[in-house]
Every structure is written in C-alpha cells, then in structure tokens.
User: Fold these one by one.
Assistant:
Number 1:
Amino acid sequence: QDLDAPFSTQCQDPRMAASQPRENAALVMLARNSERDEARKTIQNIEAQFNQWFNYPVVFLNNEPWDPDFIRELNASVSGNAIFDTIPAKDWSYPPWVDPAAARQSMAQQATTNVWNGGKESYHHMCRFYSGTFYTLPALAPFKWYWRLEPGVRYTCAITYDPFAAMARHGKTYGFTIALWEEPATCPSLFRAVDDFRRAHALPQTPNWNALLTTNSGDTPWYLRPYPLRKLAALLGAAHTSRAGDRWNLCHYWSNFEIADLDFFRGPQYQALFKHLDRTGGFYHERWGDAPVHSLAVHLLLPPGQLHHFSDIGYHHEPFFQCPGNAPGEGQLPGNEALGGEEWSAESEGAIGCRCQCADQRRRNNRGICL
Ligand code: GDP
Ligand code: MN
C-alpha cells in the first residue's frame, strides 16, 4: 500500500477541519529586524491561505532583541497568539571547542572557493542553530509540533485541513515539500560523520538509509541517479563517501519548509547525533546546512512511513516551487469564487482557491526529482 498518500485530494470547506480540536503546535519564523516587510507579507499569506481558520500561534525568533516596530506590525498580522523570543547567545555562537579565529579562517577560505554563504559567519550560526539547539529552546518547550516559515516564502493554494492533525493521525514525524541535491562543496565530510555515528551506535543500514546512497544501476531513472556523476565523484575524492565506501546521493529536503514533531528532534537519539556532528566543527570549518543534517537524520533514525511529502501544498521559496495540480472534486472556498482555478503567479499571489495549477507543468510536483 501507499505509505505516503497525500493527506487531502479534496477541496473542502476549511471550517469543517477547523471545528475539530487543535494540535499542540506553533508556526515558527526565524527572522531579522531588517526582514520586517517580507516577514509580514509571509504572515499575511499564511493567514490568508491557512491560519485565518486555524489560528495557530506564531513564534518569532531572533538572535537580537526585537525592534518594537517589528513586534507591532507582526502582532497585528497574526490571527492567533504571536510570541517574540530572543535566542540565547550560547545557541547562536561557537561551541567552546571551536576556535573562532580558526573558524573565521576556514570561512574566508570557503568564501574564495564559492561555497554558498560560506563566508557569512551568521549563516553558519543559523545553520548550527537550526540543526540542533532550535529544538531545545524554552520558547518551543510548550509545543509538540512546529511548522517552519521564512520571510519571503509563499503558500500558493489554500490549505483546507489541519496538517498537524493529519501528521498526528497518520503517525508522521517529518513533512517536506521540496527535495533537492545539496551543493557538494558545502559539506564534504557531513555524510561520513553521520555514517560514523551510525556505526558507533550500531544502527542498521535500513532501506530508508540506503535510499540516500547513490546507485550505479543502468536502469535507475535519471532523477534517482547520483548528482555528482562519476567524473565529479573522482574530483571530490573521499567527499560524501562513508568509510565503508557508500556514497551519499546529496538528496535532502529543503528545510525552509518543515512540519515536524519537535519530540523527535529534542529526543536523545537526534540530540546525540547533533552533538556528534557539532563536535567535529563541521558547522564552521565546512558550511553544513541544517537541511541535509535533518534529512540524513530522519533517514537514519525513522522508517519511511514516518516521512511525509506534502504534495498537496503549493509552496514557493526562491528559486524553486512546488505546485499541486487540480485536485479531483475541486471547488472554491466560500467567498472566493472568483479566484478559484487561477494559475499561480507572483501577480496572482493574493488568490485563494483550492484549484491551483502551475503555468509550467514540468515543475508541477517535485516528487521524484530527488528522492
Ligand atoms: P537561505 O534560504 O538558505 O538562502 O537563507 P535565508 O537567508 O533565508 O535564512 C534562513 C532563515 O534564517 C530565514 O528565516 C532568515 O530570516 C534567518 N536568518 C538567517 N540569518 C539570520 C541572522 O543572522 N539573524 C536572524 N535573526 N535570522 C537569520
Ligand atoms: Mn530562505
């Protein structure tokens, strides 16, 4: 049977789902004071497409004290409770065993070798934060589920059911929209570090783990073939290869969208994995992203049935998007009849309707582009 059917193929009245009890969940947005406009537009968008019916709280996180104007404007945009929290300095800085001077030297090197964001110290802190310490923040302690938002992202179709409730009902732990190949130069030793952890803890090579390995079989469809083709693999040497010779296919879920169970990430297994990775200094001496860290972890520690592709959620983060096709039984939301069925484009982003379609059918659905 299908381990991962879409939660919804119907256009339903969101007020039906909203009449059911809420999950213990929050939308979470990390942002800078300077991103106020984009943060507000994203909140207005998720409110229009989802939260106006469900009124989940939104937790705003910043490594710096919040600008009162940001608080005022965003408070006014959220239909549920808005919580503004500052991240403790220890969660947004070097761990004691990483020498900042040596780290900055590595970052300068990354900047000259075109590692994406490799030269930006704050970006490294952000990736380390989202990889591990995010989950242990007191501000998130009351919640079991989170939905990650970023300034600038857009939801392009109405979400007419409660994805937290659907995750809980179906026994899901981690949900994503878009899967991509990681930039190889950002994390040459990440896969080996995770595989070392796997062996040290005697964790088996499950089918879910093996799904992240390259295969060289001739009948593998193009979209499952290794991204670093043999030539690049030779150039990279030991990069992305375990001690046993397994090679990561670089697939990962794009973490700017995530709906997931905080208890998994704050649990002992994941936190032990994070500590193991953090010990290596790879968040600074390389530029490990939180996305591949999460993806490798969920494939190592969870069975495939606990992962969920939200193929029914229309989502855009520059430069990629996922757009679900028209669902059977489509219709319009009450009060939005004129807008239903419109093709999504930047111009029509105010449109609310269950019928969403992509102008470019090749980008219709990201399933299979990577994993
Ligand atoms: P990209 O999507 O990988 O290009 O990275 P972004 O620039 O979108 O950053 C990812 C998330 O971290 C977004 O929610 C940003 O607002 C947030 N972010 C990145 N750097 C900082 C920072 O220095 N301070 C704060 N407060 N947020 C940051
Ligand atoms: Mn982003």
Number 2:
Amino acid sequence: MKIGIVCYPTFGGSGVVATELGKALADEGHQVHFITYSQPARLDFFSANLYYHEVSVRDYPLFDYAPYESALASKLVDVVRFEKLDILHVHYAIPHASAAFMAKQILETYGIFIPFVTTLHGTDITLVGKDPTYKPVVTFSINKSDGVTTVSNDLKEDTNNHFDITNEIRVIPNFIDFSRFSLKPKDHFKKAIAPNNERILIHTSNFRKVKRTADVIKMFRLILNKIPSKLLMVGDGPDRANNEQLCRDLGICDHVRFLGKQDAVEEILSVADLFLMPSETESFGLAALEAMACKVPIITSNAGGLPELNVNGFCGYMSNVGDVDDMAKKAIMILENDEVLNTFKENAFKRAQDFDLKKILPLYVDYYNDIIAKN
Ligand code: GMT
C-alpha cells in the first residue's frame, strides 16, 4: 500500500503513535509518506520506504493567522496525485481531518478517489473538540471520514456521547515497539542518580495542566517521608517552573531532578522503579505503556482510558484524580518490599506485551484494506 500520514510532528503522543506506525508500516514494505509542517521528532533516520513532504505556510502581511489548513489540503492534493497514494491516515481531528476532507473533494475533480482514516487521540476530543469554536468542524469531519479509530473504548464512548456521530468507530489501542522500549543495562546511570540505592520514581510528560504534575511532586513528598527515593521529571512544558518552585517550597530539591526533553526516554525508564501518571484525563496513557515495557510498574489516576491499560493491583494501582494520599499509599505498598516490587515489575512487562506493535499493527493494516475495498 501507499499510505499518506498526517500528524503533529511533535513529542506529543499522537505524533509519536503516527510516526511509530509509519515506521512499522514501512518496515513491512508499505510506502509511507509523512505530510507535516516539520520533520516528525522520531523520524530521524533513512528508510527506502519512508518519504517526508513538508507543508510550508506562506506568510503574507494581510494574514493575522497563516492558513495552515489550506496549505495542508493543497499539499495533500499534490502528494496524492503525484505519488498515487491509496489511503490517507490523519492523526488528530483538528485540522487534519477537515483538511483531508477538503483534499478528497478537490481530488475528485481530477477523477481521483482516495479514502481517509481519522484517528482520534484524546485531547482533540476531550479538551479542544468540545469547545463550541471547533465542535461543528470536528463533528462534520469525523462523520465524513471513511474510517474513524480511537485509542481506547473510553475515548470512543466520549466521542459518541459528546458529538452527533453517525460513523462507526473502531478502537485500536496505542502500541509499543519492544525493539526500542525494553530494560537496558544502565547501572552506572542508576548509581549516579541514586548513590545510596534509593528507589527511583519517574514522570514523563509535556507538563500541561491535564497532567497534574503538581500531584506528582506532592505524592513524591509523601513517599519520601517513608522510603529513601529520588524523582526524575522528564519533559518540559507550561507547569515546569511552578513544579520547580513547589519542590523548593517543600524542601525536596535535593531529591528531584528535572531532566527536560529527552530523546532516549527508554534509557531513563530503565533505571526507574515506579512511574507516576496522576492525569486529569488520559485517552490511553502511552507514556505509562512505555514505562511498563521497560519493566516499570505504574501509579495512575483512574481517568479516561487508563483502566484499559492499568490492571489495578497487578502492574500498578489506580486512584481517583487528585487523591494524592491514596496514590502515595499505593506507591509505598509497591516500593517498600523488594519481592513485591519485583513482582510488579514483571507484571508490568507482561501487561505491556498485550500492546506489542506486532499485535496492533495488523489491526491498522486490516482496517486500511477494509476501507480501501469499500471505496
Ligand atoms: O498527552 C498529551 O499531552 C499528548 C496527547 C496528544 O494529543 O498527542 O496524547 C494523547 O494521545 C496519546 C496517543 O494516542 C495518548 O496515549 C494520550 O493518552 C493522549 N493524551 C491525553 O488524552 C491527555
């Protein structure tokens, strides 16, 4: 197949899933064309089956807002015509699904019919899409997609409950590539972070409000009262400065390291004993899955699609959003005993295997084939 992929080429979950999916499809022999405004963060190598087409938005003194959606639609028309693509797969509803719809209409005037699949990742529905500013466009473009997928049952329900959806939605969960995410021998790094064999806790995110990163710090302080430990905060975003201040206020700066954005997250996860994700909502929780693949158990909230990933009491524990005391209590239960910790580590790895790329990739390929056959 010749597949066009549109995504936000950033470190965000939707961009990561789109890029990893494209790379895996290319490895299987499909021709994959990324159409984005900059090189996707994880597309940093050469492969004969991978192509990258940059959408450039011309600035013009008349524009207060450069019309990215029109530039993307025009680029899609150009790439589909020239590269003779079979299907487009757009990640994130706004503005990718509506740009794909526009491109599809234009291509029909050239006698070219191309179906497009839209994958909803969460924030495009839970945070942005419900806003009246975007809702009509989101609803319309989901209904006009030739196929729609969500990354969890919860997101499917949420989409159906909040939008007037006439299309059938297929659930295809996030996946993990074990060739990249696995426990790596990083003992020297572990020693540097925790010289006295303290437990190492980790949080990775974009430090947006929805991640409740202050809860990570508050939870850690409670854990630190009982168990010698260190906290690694990986990533960057709007709440980081406040989190740093909170650490100073709580007097725990010596135990917390803010590492900023990191490419080799799997190496850092490899030294960790527990992953913390107290999010307000999370359509799937890819970062938690990445941790589990590296044998790191998880403490999460029970919001959104997290109960579809976190098996409570097996690979980690779940608590209500904001219940920092309960989260800390559960974390201590895992961390205070070596045997318990090791069982949770093994279980986290076992649970991650349910989302092995090798199991999930065929679900996308079959779905593309169904959609192409129907159109
Ligand atoms: O979580 C983020 O801030 C990034 C966000 C995105 O929209 O790119 O991630 C979303 O998509 C991921 C991949 O499908 C999911 O694993 C994340 O759970 C989801 N984030 C939220 O729902 C908050």
Number 3:
Amino acid sequence: KLSNRLQMIADRVPNGSRIADIGSDHALLPTYLAKDGRITFGVAGEVNPGPFDAASRQVLECGLSKVISVRLGDGLAVIEPGEVDVITIAGMGGSLMASILDAGKNKLANVSLLILQPNVGEDQVRRWLDENGWRLTSETILEEDGKIYEILTAVPQKSSEDPDLYQSRVLDEKVTLTKQRLLLMGPYLVEEASEVLIRKWESELQKLDMIQAQLAHSTAEASKAKALAIGNEIKEIREVLDCLR
Ligand code: SAM
C-alpha cells in the first residue's frame, strides 16, 4: 500500500501514460502504477547507486522488468526526448527539482504533464514553471504523519490568454498578496485556504519567530538586517493568515 502522499501523486497520472519517476528510490510509484495497469511504460530514474539497486530489486521482484526500465543517472538525463508523456518528481527540495527540470529542458518537448511534490522550496518550483512556459493546473496540500506536503501539476504551452495566476491581489481591502507571496503559498492553495494550509504557515511563523529570537541576541549588523527582514516576513504572513482564516 502506498502512503497517502504517493497515492495522491499516483491518482494524478492519466491511464495509459508513459511515465518517468525521477528520484524514484525504491520505485514504489512506478511499480504501483504498472501493477494497477495504469501505465504502459515507466522509467525509474535514480542518481544514487543504493536507491538504484533498491529500485532494480523491486521491479524484478514484482516481475515488471518488461514495463519499467530502471536507470542510473542525474535527473532527466535518464530519458530520451519523446520517451514519456508524464514526469513525476517527488520527495526532494524545490531548488533541486527546479535545477533538474532546467538541466533537462530538451527532454520536455513531448511531455504533457508534470507532477511535482517538493518537500521544501515550493516557490522555486512555481517560479521555474512560470518562467519556462508551464501552466500550473492544480495544487493539493496534505498532512501525513505530522508532515505537510504539496503536490503541484503543470501542463505545457502557457498561452498569453491564460489568466496570470500570480497577479498581485488585495485581500480584505488592505492586505496585498504579492507575486512573491503567491509563489510561496500557492495561488490555488490560497484560494482554497484549507485548514492544512493555515497550519503549515502557522508552523512556518513559529520557525521564523524562533530565528528572530536568536538573532535578537546578536549585535552584528548583518544579524540586525536579517532580523528586520524576518520581522517583515512574519508581519506579512500574519496579515495574510488573518485574512484567510
Ligand atoms: N520519489 C520517492 C518518494 O517521493 O517517496 C523517493 C524520494 S527520496 C527522499 C529522493 C530520491 O531522489 C533519493 O533516492 C535520491 O537518491 C534521489 N535524487 C536526488 N537527486 C537526484 C537527481 N539529481 N537525479 C535523480 N535522482 C535524484
């Protein structure tokens, strides 16, 4: 049985897809999809030998070697252009994810769907998609075992007629949701304003409060500047949360 997080990612893969799961670790996602008859072909990509071996064993044990190809390599280097329709990348930081997508741009020409689950740095993934012609189509937030995860989907060919998801807007006639804030919190997630989203940002506030308290002990100019920036960040998040609640 998959974790709820991986199940939600699996649920977003259209039937009959050819997928590449990059950073597949034990290849749980592609083997689940193949067993379920949901994919016709899969690549499990891994850059590290340990997880690569684990993925190879899992695919062999499941008798899925004809459907899933396990490949050792960095990011999208493991796929040929046109080989897959869907790419899933889950369980790594947003900046690594954005750099994998950026380095593998030439592999994305025939890809029709990206399903991305960054563990942190979601804003960097949204920004990469926005700046590289991908349209964010959905965002999901879930909590499992005390951790909060976001799952983003995106499709190619953002057109100039699409509404700008990150256009800054005013909440409650006073608080401005800036582009930067929307990239951080997620335009659909903010719209939905779920309890999990509020909990996520309350816990981010607690972390920032702690950092600010530590910086308050320092007299260094750099620390003072940092404390000021964090203070502004805290104020902005509080204002937005007050409007969302
Ligand atoms: N995708 C699985 C999941 O969500 O449960 C596994 C996530 S695991 C925490 C992250 C995996 O990404 C690790 O197995 C790591 O070796 C792999 N990884 C990290 N950087 C990578 C890269 N540049 N290319 C391919 N895999 C990478």
